[in-house]
Design a protein that fits this description.
80 residues, 21% helix, single chain, three-stranded antiparallel beta sheet, binds zinc ion, 1 helix, alpha+beta
């Protein structure tokens, strides 16, 4: 039963990588693999330069977050 822990971590890692570059992607929950993860962004810092991207599964409640530092710097814009 415990042998899948590293698999789960690997799937989270992949999901987080995907959602770092492409937050609008539909990524299956690494835990239950039944549902797409909900993504919500929270900015913080003096000028909202940091961003925390929360990933949660509406089905099984699995949760993780990505911290993106200096996200707003460089005037980066994504057309989506
Ligand atoms: Zn799930």
């Amino acid at each position: 039963m415990s042998s899948s822990d590293s698999d789960l971590n690997a799937r989270w890692f992949k999901a987080m990588q995907e959602l770092t570059v492409s937050p609008t992607s539909l990524v299956k929950c690494p835990k239950c693999e039944e549902c797409e993860l909900d993504v919500s962004d929270v900015t913080f810092g003096d000028q909202c330069q940091h961003l925390e991207r929360h990933l949660s599964c509406p089905r099984c409640g699995a949760y993780n977050a990505i911290l993106l530092r200096n996200y707003g710097s460089g005037d980066r814009e994504t057309a989506e």
